[in-house]
Amino acid sequence: MDKVRFGIVGVGGMGSGHARAMRDIEEVKLTAVCDVDRSTSERVAAEHGVKGFTDYEDLVDSGLVDAIIVATPHYFHPPVSIYAMKKKIHVLSEKPIAVTVKDADAMVAAAKASKVKFAVMYQTRSTPEYQAARKLVEEGRLGKIYRTMCVDSGFRSQAYYDSAAWRGTWKGEGGGVLINQAPHKIDVFMSLGGLPSKVLAWTNTRRHKIEVEDEASALLSYKGGAVGYYHTSTTEFPNTEYLELCGENGKLVMYEDKVRFWALEKPLQEFSDTTPQMWDQPKAREEVVELEKRESGHAAIIRNLARSILYGEPLLSPGEEGLMSVEFINATIMSGKLGKPVKIPVDRKAYSAFIEKMKRTSKPKRVKEAKRITDPRIGKA
Q: Is 97 found in the same domain as 218?
């Protein structure tokens, strides 16, 4: 095999973008597309000269693909992915891998049982900024982390939520900003700062006519004694993307496309315990963080999965690690709704019951005109 044959399930929005991206990835070949809307499937299939399907099982069983990208609404990620995995087809799922931790567990288990490659489309992991930050953390340059913070706020109009019947609903999305816009930054936050052991959250629907949250804040508690703060929204402008990790040996800050790191001359606790001076302050030097020139974005994740299949290259965004963001999302949504702390790992049975209860509150939503248009600036759903 010199190229991986890819199929895409769901091509009305982000999936069509992935199809176009494949034209410039020499390790892959797009061979099939699928969409429940026949006209969309036929249009995208004709555009790329491939076979079109309306049933994902037919695509998987066609013999035309070695791997698929799942770009459907959230609730369909697990059934589509698991069906493919059981047929020995590799899977790249859009984010988040599932609405519930129980379904995410099932996806991870299916991939392991079938021994197929499983990745999640967290393209931020391919950026020079993330790779540099992760290197600092993995090398232990921060030391033991004692405080974390992440603010990830942006804006969506009412027209955005009115563009599809599934948007902004419990039955269609399984949550709001936390499960749709926030997962990329949550993935970065969790993979660098670690999963908290407990979350106390406040969720709110501040600006939009939707069933789910458009704003969330949370206090975080970690097993090692660290504390943290998290905030996300689709209610403010200009946007803010800020992440901070404070450790005994240094501080890491990611702000927009910048990465800054300060190294302490002496571990903080040691300095505090040993300095004889009442007003003495630790010495810290800011180090230049080198950013490697590298391919980034959706194409980088698709190419990486293909190279993992062909040559055993390590996955940049393993599906198993996608479970972290689902844990955090579920805990934050549930805590915000119940008004009390929620422990991580999340109780699978309790969360599944919770989300089914919330889905029963969903009301039918009518839209004047359905629009399946991907954000041309950043490619988020």
A: no
